[in-house]
Structure of tRNA-specific adenosine deaminase:
Amino acid sequence: MTDEQYMRLAIREAEIAFEKDEVPIGAILVLNNTIIARSHNQVELLNDSTAHAEILSLTTAFNALGSKYLPDATLYVTVEPCLMCSGALYWSKIGKLVFGAPDEKNSYRKYTGDVNPFHPKTIVIGGVLQDECALLMKTFFKNKR
Amino acid sequence: MTDEQYMRLAIREAEIAFEKDEVPIGAILVLNNTIIARSHNQVELLNDSTAHAEILSLTTAFNALGSKYLPDATLYVTVEPCLMCSGALYWSKIGKLVFGAPDEKNSYRKYTGDVNPFHPKTIVIGGVLQDECALLMKTFFKNKR
């Protein structure tokens, strides 16, 4: 499967979040062409402001694989990670990060500027199905106003 | 109880981590003079590279209090938080963060420079029982070599 195809599955997760009135961000974690974890934001459900899609997929993968590092895995997430999730991805030594829409408000870049917060070996690709990923977020926050 | 007294309890948690061959960092989360959570690094036990003391105390507190924000709570942690934990503390809107030893290698400051990653209302105090907190870390990593 291609990055776009995996991102479509992450978008489906984001849509589930949207339907549950959670911030519509979804993630898929893939290892050797196998989906190890699917997740969406569950901040409201879990009453946990750190229950972001990325964190939930990472912890599921650590448990499922019995490994605390994921150098051969790829995380697909519909929105650019925040500072916390970037730090978690650093610790995971994730092999590849693919995100959809940039996030001007909460992106790690707002804090780190030109400093790369990820593991030096992590490949980072942004902008995959960016418009669809961004539209979900825009619609969600427009409805909240 | 004073900040130093709470930090002593966090150091006790770090010592438990040390005994279990985990990176010796401990945390205590306090609300209204009541200890809501005690934790230490459990990266090895949980096979989870994100199982830092701060994260474990935060998630325990979210669960215990049924609240996703902790504006009136104080987190005591023996070592300066990493980027991930700083981001988690941001989302938690923690009222006050008290840390012991600075961490040149993994501190959030390495990435954020002069940008404050915490919630604007979070009070940050560093250096409480700094030498004791640092000694545990130094001894741990010296033994590893």
Summary: The longest strand of chain A covers residues 34-40.
